[in-house]
# Entry
Amino acid sequence: MIKEHSISVRDLIGFLYRSGNLDNRFNAPDLSERGKIGVKAHKKIQQQYEEQFPGQFESEVYLSCSFQEKDLLLSIFGRADGIHRNDNEVTVDEIKTTRVSLEDISELLDQNHLRQCMCYGYMVLKKEKLKKINLRITYYNIDNDKMKHLSFSYSKEQLTQFILEIKEEYSQWLTIKDEWVNERNQSIKALHFPFERFRDGQRKFSVMVYHAIKDQKKLFAQAPTGTGKTLATLFPALKAMGKELAGPIFYLTSKTITRQAVENTLNLLRSKGLKLKSIIITAKEKMCINNVFKCNPYNCPFAKGHFDRINDALKDICALDGHFNVERIQEHAQLYQVCPYELALDLSEFTDCIICDYNYLFDPRAYFRRYFEVKGKYIFLVDEAHNLPDRARDMYSSQLSLKTLRELKDFVKNSDSKIAKCTGKLETEASYYFLNEELKEKWTVKDSPQDLKEALEDLLREIAAFLMTPGYDSSKEQLTNYFFDLNSFNSTMERYSDHYISILDAKNELMTLYCVDPSNHIKDMLEKGNSCVLFSATLSPLDYYKQLFGAVKDDYSLVLKSPFNQQNLCMLVNPKISTKYNARQYSAEAIVQNIHLITMHRGNYMVFFPSYQYLELIYNAFVKKYPTIHTSKQTPYMSERQRESFLESFKHSPEKTFVGFVLMGGIFGEGIDLIGSRLSGAVIVGVGLPQIGFDRDIIKDYYQKKIGKGWEYAYIIPGANKVMQAVGRVIRSHEDKGVVMLIDERFIHKPYPSIFPADWSHAISVRNEREMKKILKEFWN
# Structure
């Protein structure tokens, strides 16, 4: 079977001949502002040539060539900036923009400029059956609009030898990849499900995942705790990848603990014969092995000369298999003195399963450009998908602060007058937006602040110009941070649509371009892959999430029942207590008494609250009334060690009752496994409504106008999801047994019963303490 591969001229030369330092200070300008300047300059020069040499110049010429060797077919493609034809001579022109003085250019600024041009020259020469061809590198100075040409001439034999050499070298990398894929696919073909039987619902889930991948669809799945979601998604995805229906796999999640579950599942499958390369990509700061986190050759020895060593490091680590966690990559990076984060990104292209956070697909500031600039055959497995909507709102929103603009102006006033002048202009124009006759502190505007566009882009150009000047300057680091923030705001303005609204905060002098409805952005990014599975134990109601994820009519859906025995969970509802804000002081004593009744059976318990303020109120009252009961509470900004210490209090088979007071939807509200006697029950105080506020009301107004469900989409469903996650902490295995008490009058009224899963249908609405004691006694006995 012939393996087909294709690569652009730019990527090919950039990969094989990369050299020099890693300097991430200039990534933002290089990727955005410099790119815009380059495109504009190219068009200008090409237009001049077309007018100056009518009929003799052709711009943006698509070219390609292919090579087949044994079972490998390599296609190389690209666009030549221009081709000149004059007096039977053909010249291929490669245009490069620069800020270097043309008087100082006597030779190539970068040998790769000529190497790219040689590739295009070979393609033209072969297509038109020429014996020789001229090549020209045109350097265009964007500051003074002047050009300088460096000319070269090559014979057919010279360019043929060059292209065969790079084809041979790149084919070695492709052979490494292809040989591994063959070995991987053989192991997948022989792989059996790692257990004797599927869990209840797990087989159905796996079959639906496989069909979604085969049919190139999206699958929305509500799969309760105990279904074995990680294995139910990975196993069929691997089987599909083994048949080369799609791949690689991107396992996307928002929590570190979930990534560990993926790693454990893959290791289980490896123990059954699977050969698979997997990698965890995490934040650059967490992977850094330098004593200071600064990605430039002046502050980091791993950045200095990184590209001189990276291909040797990559070829060596590609010979290994298994799972590449942060520690393993850091060890290898240390050995070769390269940046571990950049090594991980390069290595990911030779792996089969990439485990990472949501932002590497969805965040416009952080997504993997090497993968998601164009559509691929990727499989997206989006775990804990109920977290994605709010995360996406943050990702696609951006802010402009007058305070930050003043700080920038003060920072550059003595070093760069152009930046200071542009900053002052933008600050002045932005300040007009905060003037209002009604003296409001905060309000919304439907349209984006397009009047700021010109001043903002002028400022971005000046900062980019300064950052692109040669040499080290300590101020560049801080200016890069300003550039990131301003460029993010500019990019959000370009994305702005009727799914956005502008929020003006006069008190804090802050302008926010707020993405109320991220569904189109989520949909666009999911379509970068072959197929996608979005799943969670609490993806309910499904229609709500499908709306937020931009689902289309023929997408697949699946709702599974809990695999656990319903009778193992004693579910009580106390509808006689109000937890509404105005009633909290009056109902505190009754809530304390209910908590005590639930926790009378010896064990470990969690009590969930919608806010820290409410938590403190009930915690203090409980401790005062029952000082002998061992208790602890969640506090804001707990360190990793404090979190671990809190969870360690939930001991197996405790000698005394322990009660932990925690926040609904917080760090202990989901993603933790307290199996067996480590958790005997939970009390959920309130329906978990997000705090009523300005931003939430914007969401409410938007969806009320769009589909007539504003209150449900902004408050009720997000709150109910926190409740479901909290309840889900209690029963984590078939052997678990526990009790849950829901305290609030609203739990028995519409729309809550229809939102909560059918597995809660056995919940008992208790009328008094006597009845509660009787039910609990019978349950535990």
Observations:
- The two ends are 65 Å apart (CA to CA).
- The first helix runs from residue 9 to 16.
- The chain has a mean pLDDT of 94.
